[in-house]
Amino acid sequence: MTSTAHIRCGDDLRDLLPRAGHDGAYLPIVDPVCVGAVSDAELMAYLGLRARVIALHAGVDGQEARLRLGREYMALNALAQFDRVLLWFEHDLWDQACLIRVLSLLADRAPLAGKLFLMPADGRRPFAHLPAEELAALQPAPLGPLQLAAGAEAWAAFASPDPTALDRLTRRASPLPHLATAMRRHLQDLPWRADGLALTERRLLHAVADGAADDAAALHAMLAADPVFHVTDLIVREVAQRLATGPHRLMSRTTPWTLTERGAAVLAGQAKHRPAPRFQAGVMVGPEPVWWWDPRAAGVHAAALP
Fold it and tell me: Residue 84, SS3?
């Protein structure tokens, strides 16, 4: 009998896969890689960094977050015992960011040669929304050295404090079918030269301007507007808190949410937002950004030196 491991960036398929005939060990990586700071440091340092990010983002205990991350990432060390390893990652930024993190860790593992497979995502629907018979019919595509190298290269660029390598990567063909689009969406959450807003920030402000009075309504509107970055309730709350903080806040601190006068002016292109300090993967963002997204050039732009 063939032994199989399923790697997934969450628990949503844990019960669905057996019902669709995809038996085997379920190995989740519940690391929201597209949220907050990452680094290309060795794994133990990375886990410590991500545990702090997750504790702040999700309001959980940092030690518990560190222990769970450790268990999940260490499980990757035991993959050689399986005959097949199926990777279940969809087209969106959340999944693609986690995929390149995983591929970067598996790229040089000779015992996994010929065992790694990527499950085909259709670019529209989450796996969890597929009927059981359609999920059962999916055929895994082999992951060879070319795809593994592409994942490792993308991870190094994603984790870099200089986003230009990632920008270049999105402009060429990739052996990973959904990677370029997802990474371009990631770069669009750098501050835009036109108004200083990240794309997710702008979409939240648009939702509030259109009447979204709380996080649930804003989440619904933002998911409908963005097929590539499937934001979560925690992401919406974090972005809202960022935009509602400080003397130049763009939206109200409490519900029902409304735009401030400055928020309306920024959204209308009549004022420029000065971003609060944060990390966009490896890139530090602050009130005087070093890196911008230039919508006219559809690419990354470095701020002029003083």
Answer: strand
